[in-house]
Amino acid sequence: MRFILILTLAIWISPLPVSAQNDQIEEFNAAYRAYTSAYDKGRFARAALHAETALEHAEKLLADDPGQVAIMTFLLGEVMYFAHKTEACMPVLELAIERYKAAFGARDVRVAQPMFVLANANERLAVTKNVKHAERLLEETLEIYQEAYGKKDPRLSEPLRRLAYNSLRQNNGRRADGFMRQAINLTESAGPEFAMEHNLNLLEHGRVAMSRRANKKAIKRFIQLRNILLAQDSQELPLLLTVEAQLIEAYERDGQSDKATEHVQNLARIDPRQETSEPVPLFRVIHDYPFSAAEKCREGYIVVEFTIDAEGKVKDANIIESKPKKIFDRAGLKAVNRYRYRPRIQNGVFVETPGQKVRLTWSFEGSSRKGWC
């Protein structure tokens, strides 16, 4: 969706005709062409440099067309975000929002474009004040969409889904669930052009349910989405693989290991890999910190060796290294024994894979406890 948006915007600001009498126009054209070329190749850092040059020329050449300048400002901020220049892109996107509002009107739906990217940037920093700022941007975007399209239009689904994700970042699963229910209600009876949007809503609602430990509700949503995808003539394979992986995790969390195994096998059958492939991790449990070790500020690690059987389950797990001895062994084995894998395939057949190893670490690094341990 973002890529299509960029192509549309690129059409709006097609390079001006080259004029031998105006070096600045030539420089703008060259910078803009270099930007689009680098962007199309995924070289976002280089694209950002060319976009910055193009914007400098656009600000002079297009002073009488603030809309074009606003769009070029947004393109620079967006490509800086893609280049992971998160903090640097934020003032550029703030400026883009100001320019969009001045050029098109404060409540014009196009203002949502830089708002969405700025919300992403704030959420990426994962600082409370930034996540809150992202929430305010998304709420304003939702209001703009409601004014432009009405409160029952399925196009409101995207800002609602984004608000649900933001709520999860703030550990507010109940609010996230409410946003996703609204989004699903808007898209479930919409036309075929919103089919993918509805599928994404079902997936996200399942994830929200899992975050609230409502595993059975999550399973219901994932199964609903899986049935929709399997009924389609042209299946969305990446999304189907994602759903199968989510079902494996949801069933494991719900204690239904046999059901999880069914979807391990489903995933292996639909995953377009070679006839021979190595195991792929599908579900891993976060290992507990033993209370006695945490109380005494003990840190350490273990190395576990195990076999992955033909169903993708762990068996014959044993500790081959631990420091300190025995402190973390039980917690580590308990976690590893719940891991699930896509089993190794040899000549089209699932086979066991012995000799697998994993290292688990217990540390207070990055924890609030680190300061006084």
Notes on the protein architecture:
The protein has 15 helices and seven strands. The protein has about 375 residues and is mainly alpha-helical. It folds into two domains: about 1-275, Alpha Horseshoe (Serine Threonine Protein Phosphatase 5, Tetratricopeptide repeat); about 275-373, TonB (TolA/TonB C-terminal domain), CATH 3.30.2420. The two termini are about 50 Å apart. The relative contact order is 0.05. The model is unreliable at about 1-20 (pLDDT under 50).
What keyword list fits this structure?
three-stranded antiparallel β-sheet, 15 helices, 373 residues, two-stranded antiparallel sheet, Serine Threonine Protein Phosphatase 5, Tetratricopeptide repeat, TolA/TonB C-terminal domain, mainly alpha, 60% helix, single chain
Tertiary shape: globular
User: What percent strand?
Assistant: 5-15%
| Computed structural class | mainly alpha
Low-confidence stretches: 1-21
| Named CATH architecture of the largest domain | Alpha Horseshoe
Short description:
The chain contains 15 helices and seven strands. It is mainly α and 373 residues long.
Please outline the helices and strands.
Elements: H1 2-12, H2 23-40, H3 44-61, H4 66-82, H5 86-104, H6 112-125, H7 128-149, H8 157-169, H9 173-187, H10 195-211, H11 215-231, H12 237-253, H13 257-270, E1 280-283, H14 291-295, E2 300-308, E3 314-323, H15 329-336, E4 340-342, E5 344-346, E6 349-351, E7 353-362
Antiparallel strand pairs: 1-4, 2-3, 2-7, 5-6
